[in-house]
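Technical annex, item 7. During the second reporting period the consortium partners agreed on a shared format for inverse folding records so that results from different sites could be compared directly. Each record opens with the tokenized structure and is followed by the designed sequence. A conforming record, contributed by the partner at site C, is shown below for reference.
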């Protein structure tokens, strides 16, 4: 039984949607879209594509630096502007390891809170996700995901296997820091999905779980099979929310959640088997443990061994925000007062991004240089 402190409040959200929160949230979203757009138009092509023809390693470093500064704006929004408390527990992990992350998928914004941990470890520009392909078609944000080499999937193994293996083969260079995040449940948690998962588990002799869905094992096994020799560890991450699970707009407007709790287990690769069957059993056992950890969280209100990571530096967050805004303002000024040829260049880039987003035309140059498959 959940403790009363974790039950959703009667009548709604943790904080009311006041006019101030609405205005502030809209302003933050405009800033995030505008800064992403400017970085894409002015720097995305040159760092992710042009520089890549000369040196892949330097291309990734430049892309990670620029777009990592944009990603750092999100934890600044969550933790400093919206005053969401982020509590880390479990193992304290080293900086800048090459890792595979597995996490539960409670709601549509879980993956954004992994940025809070990545920022603390200096890997915000190197974190990559395996995510549903529809997110890669979002205006502006979808192109950021392309440039940062996220792996889109249709969630049908027959359609995804070849694409995943081709993308994973690009991530083997140990010189490139890597945080590859996988959500083995394949979809966010709902009570209806949980009931279907429990029915399937009981019919097939699998663990019946209450706070997570049964994990899909093929994607995780493929990642581990392709990257094991270049990884330092696997991070098993469990995310819990107080008092309500947030939507994207809840996050943007600072309505929910009041607290995000992130429990981290650092697992040595020596403790993970190698065969596909054994890895499937290991992942199932891992999610059974995760289910128990989450049940305890909803009873007690916290994970064990809290306080493993320090808070974000307000000074660093503000400095990064100011620098990104100065860069955005400078580029915007250049666009408005530049020559006609430069305006044509900007117009062509915008049209190209729009066409590839709305009509799902994979850009051939990005396809060739980054290795995405159509």
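Designed sequence (site C submission):
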């Amino acid at each position: 039984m959940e403790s009363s402190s974790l039950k959703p409040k009667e009548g709604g959200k943790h904080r009311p949607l006041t006019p101030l929160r609405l205005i502030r949230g809209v302003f933050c979203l405009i800033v995030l879209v505008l800064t992403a757009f400017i970085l894409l138009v002015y720097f995305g092509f040159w760092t992710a594509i042009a520089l890549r023809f000369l040196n892949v390693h330097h291309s990734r470093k430049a892309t990670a630096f620029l777009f990592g500064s944009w990603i750092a704006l999100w934890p600044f929004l969550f933790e400093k502007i919206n005053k969401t408390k982020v509590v880390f527990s479990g193992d304290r992990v080293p900086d800048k390891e090459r890792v595979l992350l597995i996490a539960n998928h409670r709601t549509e914004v879980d993956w954004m809170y992994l940025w809070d941990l990545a920022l603390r470890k200096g890997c915000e520009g190197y974190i990559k996700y395996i995510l549903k392909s529809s997110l890669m078609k979002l205006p502006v944000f979808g192109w950021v995901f392309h440039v940062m080499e996220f792996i889109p999937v249709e969630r049908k193994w027959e359609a995804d296997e070849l694409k995943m293996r081709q993308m994973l083969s690009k991530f083997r260079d140990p010189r490139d820091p890597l945080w590859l995040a996988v959500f083995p449940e394949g979809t966010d948690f709902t009570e209806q999905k949980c009931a279907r998962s429990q029915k399937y588990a009981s019919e097939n002799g699998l663990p019946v779980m209450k706070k997570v869905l049964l994990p899909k094992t093929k994607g995780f096994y493929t990642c581990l099979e392709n990257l094991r020799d270049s990884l330092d560890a696997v991070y098993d991450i469990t995310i819990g929310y107080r008092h309500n699970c947030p939507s994207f707009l809840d996050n943007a407007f600072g309505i929910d959640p009041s607290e995000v709790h992130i429990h981290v287990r650092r697992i040595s690769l020596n403790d993970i088997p190698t065969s596909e069957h054994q890895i499937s059993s290991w992942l199932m056992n891992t999610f059974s443990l995760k289910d128990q950890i989450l049940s305890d969280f909803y009873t007690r209100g916290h994970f064990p061994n809290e306080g493993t990571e320090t808070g974000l530096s307000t000074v660093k967050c503000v400095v990064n925000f100011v620098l990104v805004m100065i860069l955005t303002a400078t580029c915007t000024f250049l666009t408005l007062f530049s020559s006609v040829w430069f305006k044509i260049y900007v117009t062509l880039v915008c049209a190209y991004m729009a066409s590839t987003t709305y009509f799902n035309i994979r850009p051939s140059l990005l396809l060739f240089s980054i290795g995405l498959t159509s």
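The chain has one domain: 4-370. The radius of gyration is 21 Å. All partners now use this format for quarterly exchanges.
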